[in-house]
Write a structure and sequence with these properties.
Layout lengths: L13 H27 L10 H14 L6 H21 L4 H28 L6 H28 L5 H13 L4 H8 L1 H14 L6 H20 L14
Helix pairs in contact: 1-4, 1-5, 2-3, 2-8, 3-4, 3-6, 5-9, 6-7
Length: 242
């Protein structure tokens, strides 16, 4: 059944909302980078990261080169904002508040992605032993869990959204009659295009076991976090559209 026009009031202060949001940005970016670094430091690569993360990473490096110190920042920032433009097209209106919110999300998120990437790439060596491989698999899955927890927090706070999450909500409640599964797969069309463009240079780098784990469990982790991470934090000012 389609859910529509569900609106809740905001029950926490703006200071609390910003604090929760800031924490979720840090957790999300750290989780994304943990999946990327562990994936790239196992040879041959078989781990992979979350779907959007892998696609944006691959296209960024394919276009800007692996030696570019700002490749991840520009990849996540530019591709995120292109997704925001797609959202405006689907909504059939140019909502500056919504697009500005996406930008407010993407700017610190992209900065933290690049910052954590620089740190973890320095301190995490390539895995050459079975023990290191097992450890990196566990860290990769932990990174996916961090992403799921972060999504839970910032969706409940509902100040601004990542453009990919915004796309998912638009597809679900405007085009898919509330069907979560169909809208989820439809939301993977943009990152699939990113990955295909990057394919000649990057192959299937960062797609693998971790990607499958994320596809299977990231949603469930987000649902678990709704109940157990800051469990008293409810969805704020929720508007699911017409």
């Amino acid at each position: 059944m389609q859910e529509s026009h569900v609106v809740n009031t905001r029950s926490i202060s703006m200071t609390a909302s910003i604090t929760y949001f800031a924490l979720s940005i840090v957790i999300n970016s750290m989780g994304n980078v943990l999946t990327l670094v562990t994936s790239s430091h196992i040879h041959p690569q078989f781990l992979g990261s979350a779907y959007w993360t892998a696609a944006e990473n691959n296209l960024g490096y394919a276009i800007l080169g692996k030696d570019n110190p700002l490749a991840l920042f520009w990849a996540f920032m530019v591709l995120g904002m292109l997704t925001s433009v797609l959202n405006a097209i689907l909504m059939k209106k140019w909502d500056w508040k919504r697009i500005g919110g996406n930008f407010i999300f993407m700017l610190p998120f992209s900065i933290f992605i690049q910052w954590f990437s620089n740190i973890f790439n320095r301190i995490m060596p390539d895995a050459h032993s079975l023990g290191m491989v097992i450890l990196y698999v566990a860290i990769n899955f932990l990174g996916v869990a961090f992403i799921g927890v972060a999504i839970s927090i910032y969706q409940r706070v509902n100040l601004v959204l990542h453009p990919a999450d915004d796309l998912y909500q638009i597809l679900r409640f405007r085009f898919c009659k509330g069907n979560a599964t169909i809208s989820m797969w439809m939301s993977y069309i943009p990152p699939t295009l990113f990955a295909l463009i990057a394919l000649p240079k990057m192959g299937l780098a960062n797609f693998g076991l971790g990607t499958i784990f994320a596809l299977l469990f990231q949603g469930a982790i987000t649902g678990w976090a709704d109940q157990h991470i800051f469990g008293r934090l409810t969805h704020q000012a929720l508007d699911l559209g017409n």
